[in-house]
Amino acid sequence: MKKPCTKAQCAIGFTFLWLTGEFVMASIGVRNNKLVVDFRHFDVRCREQTELEDNPTNRRKLEKLIKTIEGDMRLDCFVYRDYFPGSAKAKQFARHDDEASKRKAECFSHYQPSVAKTDHVLFQSFADEWYEENAVRWKNSYQQTISFILKSYLKPEFGTVPMNLITKADILKFRARLGKEKDDGKKLSADFVNHVMTPLRMILAEAADRHGFRTPFENIKPLRVDKTDVEPFSLEEVKLIIDEVREDFKPYFTVRFFTGMRTSESDGLKWKYVDFDRRIILVRETNVNGFMETTKTLGSYREIQMSSLVYEALKLQQHISGKRSEFVFCTSKGTPLDHRNVRDRIWKPLLERLGLTYRRPYQTRHTAATLWLAAGEAPEWIARQMGHSTTKMLFEIYSRFVPNLTRQDGSAMERLLNENQI
Question: What is the domain extent for residue 80?
Answer without folding.
Answer: 7-111
